[in-house]
Fold each of these.
Amino acid sequence: MQYTEVKIYVSPAGLEPLTALLLAHGVGGLAIDDPREIAALAARKTGPDWDCFDDTLLARGEIGAEEIVVSFYLEAGAEGARRLEAIRIDLMKLKGEEQDGGFGRELPLGRLCAESVLRSDDEWKDVWKQYFKPFRMTERLSVKPSFAEYAPAAPGELVIELDPGMAFGTGLHETTALCARLLEASVRPGASVLDVGCGSGILSIAAALLGAGEVLGVDLDDAAAEIARANVAANGCADRVRILKGDLLAGLSFKADIAVANLTADLIAALAGGLRAHLKAGACFIASGILTDRRARTVSALEAAGFRVAESVEAGDWCAFKAV
């Protein structure tokens, strides 16, 4: 089967509006190649996070680069071409808004240039395997790909077997790890958990392994939902975890003790208003995908929706909240 690989070049300030634009077009499974993260790892080159990479990453000449590359895949054919054209038109509108001063001179969005190339699925589906190795994501949770051997190294260690494929969520990105860290401290035996924008299913699986009795994961992207279901089954969680294709909370009647969403600041703000109807008394909302410079704006949106931020954690340029 053939797919169109699309790469969009964006500045750090433009990452969030670009992500929101792509999500509005129903594009999931984004791969975000951020040279700042590679540079930070190169500066340390120690610890378990470095073990997830190899030296070929450094040879790609990305250290010192300023642009972030956002990649995703569309099916080849007329429908994929139509979607790509619509995305390119909206990129032009976004760039025009920046040039008109809509984002302020202090927030240049970058080139917003979309490159595309036709690929066979044999080329892209296993690329992630080059850099994905077992690692410790939180104090109790570790992640391993299905093709790697790994034995728990400590009593009580929980191992998530994960093949992310095209879906977002390996646990390597700060936002996923921050959500997992807050989940680890929040899940109680038998708890119900709603995972909005579940991607690879990693947080849904983490919640189940931590003791949740019922988990519902929702993702807009067909491929992500399919991948998440496969990962849930591989971890023996299918009796506790359901994965649905859906648009945020639309059409859901599920009520949870914990809701978790690793999205963007704008989507978190949009989600917060309707989330109360899906939370039980005393429930909490764990939210990430929020750049630290959007912290105050996101807190204000949560408070306007009736939430109070009980805990805030951060890593790199990203932060996450536990709101009640």
Amino acid sequence: MVAKDFHQLITQMLLVSKENLSKQNKIIINKFQTMLEDNYDLIRQANDIDIKNNNGFPLDKKIINNIFKNVSLEKVSLGEITELKKDNEKKLIYGKQIMGIGNVLVINDGNTYIIIEMILRNIIAGNPCIFINKGYMFGTNELIIKLLNDLLTSFNLANLIQLFVADNYDIIYKNFANIDLIIGIVKREEQNQILKNSLCPVLLSGMENFEIYLDDDLFPELILNSLKINSQIILYVKEYLDYACEQILVADLDEAIARINYEGSHYSTAIFTKTKENAAKFISEVKSKQVVVNTSPLIERLLDIKEEDLVIEKTIIYPSK
């Protein structure tokens, strides 16, 4: 069950022993994937209940498998000292050691795919982690984390990964002393509140925040469907269009690019245009990790947080023999 007391979760997180995690993390991830596959019918039942209650979306088993596949490509040697160079004159060896960043708090909207990926990445990084959200996909997420904790308990790592549901995030700002990193994968307004109130390091993801610039009025049905799927799309238009949503009027392509670069998420941006030259200019000048032309910015939703964001690299210097 999900704990009702956030302080209780913090205490449990501090008691987690990570001594053998670096040696077991790959084994744990493999067993976690097998456990999800073995219990997928049960997870689907919980997912169906969330959908029936208008509190979730249908999970795709292929997407979950792809998350495991993509994470498996990351190469982090947690805890091991790697030799970088040897200085014979000074008789010193320089190396590096990868360590977990510490206790991590992930604030997200409850998207199960994000939770699964962040679970895997924090296990690889050796970080105890608490997920906090407002209860979206609660049944699905609670079951997955319960299955995971059953597995972690067998490795003496109970409470490494936990889930907390809250009406707001004010409670986290009273526990900074025990949190080493806050990750915000939420709407812009909530990200701004995290930055405003946080006293510890913050890492933000652009995921779930998108921009569309309408250079021409093309594919209105596609745009309307995108807006229905994600209300965090910011629409930039040269002239007002009847899309029943907030729109930002711009004079031309140059103003659209300037505004998106200044106030956008820098995550995923789309342009709808009939002009190849305008498309090329947009692609070249917009500061976004993903730029698409005449299609929805939601076409690829990749989490832009990697292993190097979740670990610390220490420089190690020791005498050579």
